[in-house]
Queue: 2 jobs
Job 1
Amino acid sequence: MSIATVRRRGALLGGSRSFWSLLAWVVAILFFFPVLWMVLEALKTEAQAASIPPTILFVPTLEQFQAVLSRDFPPFFINSAIATIGSTMLVILLGLPAAYALAIRPVKRTRDALFFFISTRFLPFAASLVPLYILARDLHLLDNILALIVIYTTINLPLGVWLLRSFLLEIPNDLFEAARVDGAGFFDELVGIVLPLVMPGLAATALICLIFTWNEFFYAVNLTSSVAATSPIFLVGFISGRGLFYAKLSAAATLASLPVLLAGWIAQKQLIRGLTMGAVK
Amino acid sequence: MQNPLAALSFRLSERAPGTARPLATRLAGLVVAVLAAAACSPGAGGGGGGGAQTTITMAAVDNPQMEDLQKLVPEFQAQHSNIQVKIVILPENQLRQQVTQDIATHSGRYDLATIGTYEVPLWAKNGWIENLGPYIQKASSYDANDLIAGVSKALSYKDSLYAVPFYGESSFLMYRKDLLQQAGVTMSEHPTWDEVAAAARKVNDPGKGISGICLRGLPGWGEQLAPLDTMVNTFGGRWYDPQWNAQLTSAKFKSAVSFYVDLVKSAGEPGAANDGFTECLSIYNGGKAAMWYDATVGASNLTGSAAQNSGFAYAPVKDTKYSGWLWAWALGMPSSSSKKDAAWTFMSWATSKDYIKLVGSKLGWSHVPPGTRSSTYQLSEYQSVAGPYAKITLDSIAQADVNHPTVDPVPYTGVQYVDIPEFQELGTQVSQQIAAALAGTATVDQALQQSQQFADAVGKNYRPK
Amino acid sequence: MSQPNVSKPAVPGSAVVAEVRRPRAAASAARRDSWLRRLPLLPALVYVFLITQIPFALTVYYSFFSWNLLRPGSFQFAGLQNYAAVLTESSTRIAIVNTVVLTLCAVAIAVVIGVLIALLLNREVFGKGVLRTLMIGPFLVMPTAAALIWKDTLLNPIFGLVDYVLSPIGLGHVDWVNRFPMATIVTIEVWRWTPFMMLIVMAGLQSQNLETLEAARVDGADAIATFRYITLPFIRPFIELGALLGSLFIVQTFDSIFMTTQGGPGQATTNIPFLLYLVAFQGFDVGKASAIGVFAVILTMIVATFALRTLFTIFHVEARR
């Protein structure tokens, strides 16, 4: 290998870890900036939040968070948690076997099944909302968190099935051959081989489903009123028609996003853990 | 067959010691917890709670006054321990859509709802909201005569009140006395639009970032069309003639819209198509606009130097004597509610003279909901806070007449809207076209041509066959 | 499906009997195997079928009626009237064009940026975990709140932060939202969906076989070659998956349009979901909204069938066992 090649390789591979780190941080902060700005707005007074020019340096205050919490946030939060965790669990429970059936021991009509799942997402929500609303009303499921769990699971199952299928396809055939030679059956395969190796994929899928259901607004606002209302409904209630509200809205949005941020952080660990498992292969 | 969950934990502990097992048990625990919570949560089951308690659910719009109401609900419940009030706060668009859907399909989710002068006549006609006349007659201390006449009329159908007013507003002009003085301009108390436009152009100073006037341009039948329609009315224009022919391309309508667009382009704030009430409030408060034509309640939101230096004038006119709009948020009772008496108890409390005094003493006199009762304007405490603009507000509301909004006769009611069910969609479509004119991507003619088509399609539904 | 191994028996006579018995046994074993394969799929399939097709059937039903919620008693059979209105109005055509433009642009840009960032964050960089969590930020915030923050606190020509930052270089007071409405919506959607693409591609990058990469490095391949010949083909299914799923969601973009441009100026940013919202929730015309919905489904089916068959390799079923 010539000196030139080594130098070129070094330059492209960037032996400089700090250069790539710097770039990564700049990009991440750029993307994160609107969120950061929102959190900053939450710490200002309403006058500061809508000031001209924008207030960059200020003394932070917690009054917006106090104002937001004085509107009884916990019930909304709990409803969101129930709807989100419930539907995500159901998606994994139903979706993983389905993905298995479409990836590892494929069904004859895999393509049709895959297409069917995707096609259920073609109808825009505004067209199906009134029929759904009337169905829910007749089944006495209006303002009931179970209705939301059912609908969110339906919305996310196609996503979950497609995602999990892709992750399952990565598992090399030899592992299954070896297991079959050992006499392993369907459950042994699923639990012994598939689950450990699909963990990063499972974590990514669960995180994505979690985020979608946590932030879902339109089905929630139409199918609930006071008892089963979720966080997004709490949030938009701060959009005032006759007064300044940016700071309060930012505070409410920050509070509402914290749990999902936490979930994202936990999922990180799963994603990284998956890497070490893969290396042990 | 083995329990799959047990097999799961067993297998995982074999394959990946230490890491996967805690996860599996955590997962299993979560599943159990969630299902248990779902089963026990009040949303899922029938819920406990017994006794003679009635719970009423109210859908409310998010206004500062409604937020105050929510804060004072404990006071109500202290006096009426058998009634529990749950208030659901939503932004205006969502609220209107939810309540309409609820009432139209008789779902009974809400026992009480905030509705406006736009909905009341339409819904009363459909029998969707309860006639409050009998309730008022029985309540001797309610004093319905104290309600401001114009507001009362706008909330009535066939001379009977169908919703009780909680908040009322008209429109007027707010201006910075200091900025106008610097440019050598004075503003009369009853200005004409020509006077206002001239003043705006003189004060307009892009170099210092100060616009002559801030006007709404945000698309929406309740946003941009509110001030624009009042201008159309006072210029002698109208949406439909008595035979329901759309008049959007008539000379007077066009002259009003052109005037509005020209004024915004020459002396208005940059990016007007972004700006509704809240944005204009920020701009005026920040000293970036010398004048602001908008809702009367804007005055109570002013801060800083804007608050200290503002003067107030009646809504500018051309061919009429007054041109302010009329809007009120009122509490209405869906006919499908099963708790009408409890609902009446609450709504009469929330719109009573006592409530006004309660807000004033507990939260401050600037929090008092304006524009509902004449007695409010006679309270000295309120006068001391709202002094400069209280009289103009009261007068503007009193002079706005939903039944005779225009110079020439019209087949509809409503000052800054056309009180037909189709107007929500029509108004939004037309305001989108005009926003394009404001943004410079279409001419006023093009915008009005297209709008005329939309309006004509709707007018067809009403023309005698 | 593989056939069981048939070996010749030692005794000729019994061979005939055995061979007659084996095909029947083979056939029923094949059927049992086929049902066993279907079993894991059934719960999800049945569940989704029930919950989506019943409301959809209702939607189709309503599309043949004229029903305006604001006019009680207006529920009447209208045949194909709604469809005729949908097909002839210019609003529909404009909405379709806007939907296509928005989806294609947003997905393409988000995929490219997502892949680049995934590659970047897959390297040895300081604080990888924190970086990844930061990158997910845009995806976490509720779309409605985020769009409002973008429109008012960032992009407003008078009091927005972007204006404040760009004024010194002469780009002040630019009305981004109304002069470049589609670009604004695309920007907000790209901002929101790049993390999604990144997550999927990253999960794919992490399931790469490190030995293969190591072998390539030992053989003297530089970073670009490794990427082009090993990594890229490996993550291509993940990229496609991200693009496919992302398109499904971006086609339904509503929140950002509703909060920033309200479909305007004019109809410049009215896409199909927003048009549906206008018709269904401001006009309360349930019949026409249902017709638009059915029409949207049919259109998307045509496009999706074509796209999945030609463009996406992930749709082809791999031969396994």
Note: Residues 3-12, 275-281 of chain A have pLDDT under 50 and may be disordered.
Job 2
Amino acid sequence: MSMTDFETYPDAMKPLWTNDGYSQGISSAAFLKGEQWGDWNGRLVVSFLGIGFGGTPLGQRINVINLAADGPTIRDITEMPLSMGSARFRGLVMGPDGALYVANDEGQIQRFTAQ
Amino acid sequence: MRRAVLFTMTIALGLSQAQAGDIEAGKNLYASNCAQCHGPTAKGMASFPSLIGRDADYTQSRLETYRAGEKVGANSGLMIPNAKNLSDEDIVNLVVFLSSKS
């Protein structure tokens, strides 16, 4: 389902990414920053709440998106491995310590670091 | 007379099996069908209610109501398709699993 109504607003900005057309409750996004993230330094992380309703696959993941430095192009998208299992991820924010702090719908806040 | 006695025993056996339920089967069904909204510990999240500490009869009757396609509450549109394919046995298994966590 496209969020942007191009019939009414033909000049609207086109989305860089459409999640394969799925509505899966995209909830938050942040840029990973710092050498501690290795290859993931500068990657965009995006979280999903989706409960998997009406034939839509379950969301509940964090994607890691590699954006080209010189323009709005996506080079690659991967899924973050989650050692503690999946959840309804609600918020992502970089901490001052260089870790990624992740809030989920069960009221937990988890601290993610690169291995 | 003998036939009548046998009949009564069969009914009694059927009931006790249904009431016992299978906690392990309920746990597996919960993990695959319910946990994504009600949470891995069934304590609920966002607009999805906790299922812990509920009366077993209440949980069973709610699931049967949703299975029948009847609306009760704001999330009926989510629950009706989820409950549609549950068997009586599935419902009892879910109820005994949830009761065991309370």
Note: The first helix of chain B runs from residue 2 to 20.
